[in-house]
Amino acid sequence: MPALVHGQADPQSRSENQPVAPFRIIGNIYYVGASDITSFLIVTPSGTILLDGGFAETAPQIEGNIRKLGFRLEDVKFLLNSHAHYDHAGGLAELKKRTGAQFVAMEGDAAVLAGGGRGDFFVKTGFPPVKPDRVIHDGDTVSLGGTTMTAHRTAGHTRGCTSWSTIVTEDGKEYHVVFVGSLSVLQGYRLTGKESYPGIAADYEKSFAVLKALPCDVFLGPHGSFFNLTDKREALAKGATPNPFIDPAGYQEYLADSEQSFRAELQRQRAAH
Question: What is the mean pLDDT of the chain?
Answer without folding.
Answer: 95
